[in-house]
Amino acid sequence: MKNKNNPTTRAKLSTGRGKQKRVVMVSGGFDPIHIGHVRMFEEAKKLGDELVVVINNDNWLKLKKGYAFMPERERKEIIEAFKAVDRVVLSGHKKNTKDISISKELRAVRPHIFAKGGDRHCGNIPTPEVLVCNEIGCKIVNDIGFGGKVQSSSKLLKEYSKKIKK
């Protein structure tokens, strides 16, 4: 059975034979989840032995876009069901926080690779995340997901909103 609950340090992720598992981490709101996310998970998993998905919690979504479309627990349960995903961690963002990075989660998980989806590149990754990756020796890999950004949660919700208003 997959261990999908608590963040774990690299030291606890050994295979039992002295060989350390290569941990890959991705993050996002996944609100709602779409095919681009699925492709990102599949491609990111190929970069290592264990894929950890950090889900930005409802507090983060409310700060970022004003609302959460799907509750965090539902997003977590759906993502846990994907074959490529080994662990899912909810971000610990508090209400009205000023720091919307996932620096704390990066420090807790200590991945070898931090894989970013098609809409992320060196110029728009939050500085605190870059600093933590440098501190822990984590490589940042951009444009994960088989060809860049193929879908957008915000776009899906806007299109749906237009349809139901007709």
UniProtKB/TrEMBL annotation:
User: What are the Cytidyltransferase-like domain coordinates in residue numbering?
Assistant: 27-120
Query: What are the protein's UniProt keywords?
Result: Nucleotidyltransferase, Transferase
- Please report a single Pfam family linked to this protein: CTP_transf_like
Does the record carry Nucleotidyltransferase as a key word? yes
User: Do you know which InterPro entries this protein is assigned to?
Assistant: Archaeal_FAD_synthase, Cyt_trans-like, Rossmann-like_a/b/a_fold
State one molecular function term (GO): nucleotidyltransferase activity
Q: Which NCBIfam families match?
A: cyt_tran_rel
What is the protein's name according to its record? Cytidyltransferase-like domain-containing protein
